[in-house]
Records
---
Amino acid sequence: MPVILITGASSGIGAALARLYAREGASLVLTGRDRTRLKAVAQECRERGADIRTRIIDVRERTEIGAWIRELDSATPLDLVIVNAAVNGGHPSGGLETEETAFETADINLGGALNVMLPCVTLMSARGRGQIALISSLAAYAPLPDAPAYSGAKAALLAHGLALRQKLKPLGVRLSVVTPGYVKTPMGGVIKGWRPLEMSAEQAAGRIIEGLERDRDVIAFPAILAALARGALLVPERIRSAGLSGFRFRNRPRR
Ligand SMILES: NC(=O)c1ccc[n+]([C@@H]2O[C@H](COP(=O)([O-])OP(=O)(O)OC[C@H]3O[C@@H](n4cnc5c(N)ncnc54)[C@H](OP(=O)(O)O)[C@@H]3O)[C@@H](O)[C@H]2O)c1
């Protein structure tokens, strides 16, 4: 029975991944901060026949997360870990992101991701088996002026993940970086602006699962937006940034 850990499973893409993986014989470990929403997702997954464990935990709690992952893995070795929890940062009325928001975003989206990923890297490489998915964003390729800390954290995660992938491959551990475009979730839904080729959380989760089954290095979607974001890195910055002006947005604070 594969054991899958998903962080940020109480909402959006994480919850959609949990629902898609939930079936007879699957063992899922779901984390989040909101008890009520996490419980509701867990219940839906149990009704689909999966064995479900939940944990309310803030990914910024490095010591607690590391100890818990080691304990979890020693009881039931983790086959797949999806490092998904994040916040969007930005400014509610499109102004300059505050220091407080920028630090919080970096702490959760980068620090929190590493707090989950690194203990798994250690455990999986020691036993020569396992798979890790880092949920980054197309903002890693196309930094968004309205979400600088978010874009920076996602770019760091992309670089860290791709570098590690090379080291982990000979050790029997697969690592993929996922760079979604616009996805209709509580996070994506607060973006006030043009959201080209927006997908549902279920569609995004389906693409992620398919990419992980194929052990893709980068799982980027939708294809056209991904090609534009990646290709734009080759043009002069003043042209690239002018082209981004249609993507200005405002973030309402998260619930
Ligand atoms: N939606 C998009 O358009 C889009 C595009 C590209 C990439 N992504 C990426 O996809 C992933 C999922 O995003 P989403 O759209 O599904 O967002 P979402 O609906 O807002 O869900 C975010 C999840 O992260 C959890 N989380 C946030 N801060 C946390 C913390 N400090 N500790 C533990 N858990 C925390 C939330 O838990 P609680 O709610 O329980 O606090 C929630 O379960 C993120 O990495 C995001 O950057 C999203």
Note: The pocket of NAP is lined by residues 7-8, 10-14, 32-34, 37, 58-60, 84-87, 108, 112, 135, 137, 180, 182-183, 185-188 (CB under 6 Å).
---
Amino acid sequence: MKKIIETKDIQKTYVMGSEEVRALKSVSIQINKGEYVAFMGPSGSGKSTLMNIIGCLDTPTAGTYILNNKDVSDMTENELAEIRNKEIGFVFQTFNLLPRASCLENVALPLIYAGFGKSEREEMAFKTLDSVGLGDRVHHKPNELSGGQRQRVAIARALVNNPSIILADEPTGNLDTKTSYDIMELFHELHQKGNTIIMVTHEDDIAHYAHRIVRLRDGLVETDTINPSPTRGKVAVVTE
Ligand SMILES: Nc1ncnc2c1ncn2[C@@H]1O[C@H](COP(=O)(O)OP(=O)(O)OP(=O)(O)O)[C@@H](O)[C@H]1O
Ligand SMILES: [Mg+2]
């Protein structure tokens, strides 16, 4: 299988005044194309720090990060921006949508930087919104949608450029249980289509959708295990 992500002894130290926080002490992991991985671990263990480095939003203090066979530390700011835009789709816990823009405009936004014309952008954004079940909400603004619908808009925005990697930091952190499972259903479909997915979650039942679970603790990988029977499709929610 093709290796898409490789970190070698990645370290990240934040300096705050006279204090140093060693957010990542040494992390070496490999992720192949098409894998579905969950990062777990206690608060402060370094999950978001690692995700931000993998997503080229931040750089390690030491160590090597190889993305698609290229050493990220050799890349210029422009190259990094291009990778973030074309190769990586981000989904955040707080959705990060533009409040005054419609769903269509929110999803079309990354396509502006990618250089597509207006009609093409709208067509691509519409198709992607439709694919996440929001074809009938394209002109709504984020505050006119439910939490789950907002997250689906954010997922559509992450997908619209057809990125090779989807990074989701606690994508269900602000959603109720049923809506969380709907979003996981969507991730399951994306994975089936061949996307590489890495998500951070605190919840065991959400992590169980992933095919591999990496647990971090104190800036180190504590365990890295294959999930022999990932959850597929919807979980029946029992209501009494
Ligand atoms: N920008 C920053 N400046 C200084 N310290 C930081 C910064 N970002 C994170 N840290 C520290 O680095 C450590 C790891 O943080 P990180 O956000 O990666 O944890 P996490 O595993 O994502 O936690 P959570 O589950 O609470 O989201 C923490 O001790 C945190 O306080
Ligand atoms: Mg975090």
Note: The chain has one domain: 3-226.
---
Amino acid sequence: MFIVIVVMKILYQFYISLNMLEMNQVILQSLGAAETVTGSKHLLKTPELTILIDCGLFQGIKSLREQNWFPLNISANEIDLIILTHAHLDHCGYIPLLVKKGFKGKIYMTKPTAALVQLILLDSAKLQEEDAERANKHHYSKHHPAKPLYTIEDAEACFKYFYVQDCDIFIRLSDHIHFRFKLCGHILGACSVELTCFEKVIIFSGDIGRPQSAILNPPDYFTSADYIVMESTYGDRLHPDTDPYDELADLINETIRRRGNILIPSFAVGRAQELIYMLNLLKQQGKIPLNLPIIMDSPMAAAATKISLQYADEYTKVSQREFQEISDHIIINQDYNNTIGFIKDKKSKIVIAASGMLTGGRVLEYLKHYVGDNKNTILMIGFQAEGTRGRALLNNTHEVKIHGQYYAVNAKVTEIQYLSAHADQAELLDWIKKFEPAPKSIFLVHGEPCAQESFRVKVQTALHLPVKIMKQNQDVLLFTCDYEIVSPTPVKSNH
Ligand SMILES: [Zn+2]
């Protein structure tokens, strides 16, 4: 009997110590943007808090979009807080759904990000409501009735959890966890996150911008980290070292000589503002005709430009006054009726419209009318994800399907990679080289498999660092805390 009790006690102690060990673990898990570029959601499970870095929607091919409807690998109410790197939909678009599912914590972000996220979520909800309505009207959904992922009301319900924070200031989240934002270029207000957790530093890169943006400052660098969770969108590519201004001017002038139009699909937030700045400069320098109409046909881009103007002095290298002057020189259209007028007008013009990957939005109206005519140019300036019309066009497809109809591709389709909002392979490597000493491990997220594999090999051979490509929903143990007893004392939300 005595022996049985002793054995039971030993087993119990062993069970407790195993549990303690597990409780003291810090685990990383990607719920999205693992071997793909959308759906960014990276979970950090710590003894004190469960933190979600970004909360984005899956976009692109159907199999990815369907994932937005699947349950998450964790209950929404088990997540204590969200830290948001930036306002692109693939980083913030899932927030209304998470709140609907029971998330009630703080959502930390910078001021411009908060303004842009509100705009983007309301637009996303509106598009989803319209899609569901159209599907019900034309009976093309297998769900009866078809429902939106979330509504405008759901989007509005999440704003009260927003908690704006300045860059470079440490924010305490619990006894042993704090973080700070650092600007990383890419788009207005976009940041990387430096999170210190039980004395170990984990960097979440967010989307890293290019050092030579026309309106944003170069990404701020970090010099010390234990672990890096890093994007790898262009992990296999080098942006050409050509002058983007000359390239843009040549392309525009060549199209005007053919009496064609230039259609530039663009993210409403980020690229659109950079582009109007550059086009305006080309006009001032006499490199493109001063009277060439530049139409920004996107209510979203117009609103985003206003937000850029508001935060210009603090968050960009272009002053408010300069931004205002540029905005005054372009035609900003909000009204869909005018779109038809612009299309009918045969004079050469530049049209900037969203969405940037031609997956939806007003740009499709122009594409329908412009893509079949070899006088026109379709100019891509941003990353085109797998399965999008943008990628198909860059891959020389002979026809595109828009709203159920096929259109022959005769227009010139081209790309200026230099204008990308994402760092290329060499710039990503430079970003890592700033860490002194080098980090223990790098975890790659936000990239398609080819780009990630190529970047993994490059980092391992050039920098001799261990690199792992994150798999969706797989736990990765970062470290186990030395602390014997960990008391979960999160800093409570004030809401
Ligand atoms: Zn982004």
Note: The chain is about 35% helix and 20% strand.
---
Amino acid sequence: MKVLLINGSPHARGCTYTALAEAEKVLKEEGIETEIVSIGTAPIRGCIACGKCRQLENRCVFDDDIVNRIIIKAEDAAGFIFGSPVYYASANGAMTALMDRLFYAGKVFAHKPGACVVSARRAGTTAALDQLNKYLMISGMPVVSSQYWNMVHGNTPEEVAQDLEGLQIMRTLGRNMAWLLKSIEAGRQAGIEPPVPEAFERTNFIR
Ligand SMILES: Cc1cc2nc3c(=O)[nH]c(=O)nc-3n(C[C@H](O)[C@H](O)[C@H](O)COP(=O)(O)O)c2cc1C
């Protein structure tokens, strides 16, 4: 059982990483395998709405950046934590580009628990969280919560280390995710499988 933690920041060991690492610490203590993947500083294309991913099984047509590599890792993961710094009260641009293509091309998330966490100097955290949580909620993922909204505050990892409540939120999140993963696995062993989806009823409002 593995949890994939995505660090959407250009800083591989920055504030977002510090938050993710705190959740990861607890997941490991709970016996859950983990991997933190940083998206780094290389460009990530935005979705061009070409629709080619409908013909390619769980792959984006663009294979020259990190998106397909994360989809491949996501296929084997049982749970996810998506972390982003807050840029202008949203997830940063690279993370938004990643999430658009990851969820549009990679149909690998349904019924797998997920959570989003954000890091900000001061404000815009709940707006960014709302944005990120929507990817999970349109994908049939059980959204894991904590004792507060999943955020830390700081401009540097050292400042985040002083956000004792923020770090506790991350630990509680990790513990809740471990509990849910183990519960789902226990259910599976008892014969409880994910629900079979209905045929998709797609209603466009102008037709
Ligand atoms: C372009 C840009 C926009 C930012 N916008 C916000 C913002 O809206 N609110 C805020 O509190 N901090 C903002 N920040 C600060 C970062 O969110 C904050 O330093 C974050 O913790 C950095 O995380 P990281 O070290 O993982 O990259 C911004 C930073 C940059 C570079």
Note: The mean pLDDT is 97.
